[in-house]
User: Which sequence fits this backbone?
């Protein structure tokens, strides 16, 4: 169930010139945004550190896992790990998705208040992609208020009918959001009733090694951690890891 590609146009002369330079140097067929991402050291560092977390997330949940960073009012998808399911969401790398209606995009906005959202998007209604898409700053602000405390964001078929997603922020040592990680799945395998369960898993995946503290809303501790097992159909079954003896 591939998600429709809504790649955004290049919006600055500086970026355009950088892309043209990279096109000249590149000898393999890679999308322009991906070529640019490969030249940005911090994004490449994030990709390298998060890669095993993406793979583990995809394996544990049985669904496609994605990694994204924010660029303006869009989420730039920089890496993914594919599901092994016969039917699943296509991996997305090197292109853009809206911030306001994707789980990974909302995770990137977790710390935004209403005034910051207005500054970013403007006062006009947000783009509607499906019947479920959030289209107002007020509704998006409410989503951000929920995302921060619980530690994850979700979308219920907002950018694409038939696809649901859950994502969590990735934070640096200061607590600032520098990326997001999450899963996408057909709605019948990831209905709203499973969002909270999946949310706890992506929170753990977002706790990458350079953090000095857990992502907000995480209940994981050193002595008891939440793990996830799956059936062949990719159905989540939460389990508790054994308590370590001191």
Assistant:
């Amino acid at each position: 169930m591939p998600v429709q590609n809504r790649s955004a146009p290049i919006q600055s002369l500086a970026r355009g010139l950088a892309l043209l330079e990279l096109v000249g140097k590149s000898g393999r067929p890679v999308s322009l945004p991906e070529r640019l991402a490969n030249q940005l050291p911090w994004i490449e560092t994030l990709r390298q550190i998060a890669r095993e977390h993406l793979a583990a997330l995809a394996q544990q949940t049985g669904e496609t896992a994605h990694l994204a960073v924010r660029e303006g009012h869009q989420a730039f998808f920089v890496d993914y790990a594919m599901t092994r399911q016969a039917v699943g969401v296509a991996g997305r790398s090197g292109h853009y998705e809206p911030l306001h209606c994707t789980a990974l995009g909302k995770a990137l906005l977790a710390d935004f208040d209403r005034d910051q959202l207005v500054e970013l998007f403007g006062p006009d209604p947000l783009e509607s992609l499906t019947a479920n898409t959030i289209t107002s700053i007020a509704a998006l602000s409410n989503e951000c208020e929920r995302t921060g405390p619980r530690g994850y964001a979700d979308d219920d078929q907002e950018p694409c009918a038939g696809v649901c997603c859950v994502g969590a922020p990735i934070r640096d040592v200061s607590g600032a959001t520098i990326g997001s990680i999450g899963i996408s799945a057909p709605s019948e395998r990831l209905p709203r009733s499973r969002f909270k369960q999946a949310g706890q898993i992506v929170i753990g995946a977002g706790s990458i090694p350079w953090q000095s503290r857990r992502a907000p809303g995480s209940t994981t501790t050193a002595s008891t951690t939440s793990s996830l097992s799956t059936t062949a159909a990719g159905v989540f079954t939460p389990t508790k890891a054994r308590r370590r003896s001191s």
About this structure: The domain at 29-217+232-240 is CATH 3.30.450.40 (Beta-Lactamase). The chain has one domain: 29-217+232-240. The chain is about 35% helix and 20% strand. The first strand starts at residue 64 and ends at 71.
